[in-house]
Amino acid sequence: MKRHLARVSALFVFLMLASCGNDGIYSGFEKMKNGAYMKFYSKGNSGVMPRLKDEVTFEMVQYFNDSLLFTTVGAEPMRIVLSEPDFVGDVADGLMMMHVGDSARLVVIADSVFSVTLQMEEIPEEYAGKPIYYDLKLLSVKPFEELEAERKALLDSLQWKEEEFLASVRNDAKNTLTESGIIVMEKTGKGRVASMGDYVDFDFTMCDSNGDTIMNSFSIEPVEIPSALAFDSTGYEKYILPYTTLVVRMKMNHVMDKAAYEKRQAALEAEKEAERERMMALESKTIADYIKSNGIVETPTESGLYIIRQEEGEGDVAQWGDEVGVHYVLKNLNDEQLDSSYDYERPMYFKIGSGQMIPAIEEAVMTMAPGEKVTLITPSSLAFGEFDMGETLPPYSPLKIELELVEVK
Question: Which domain holds residue 29?
Answer without folding.
Answer: 5-142
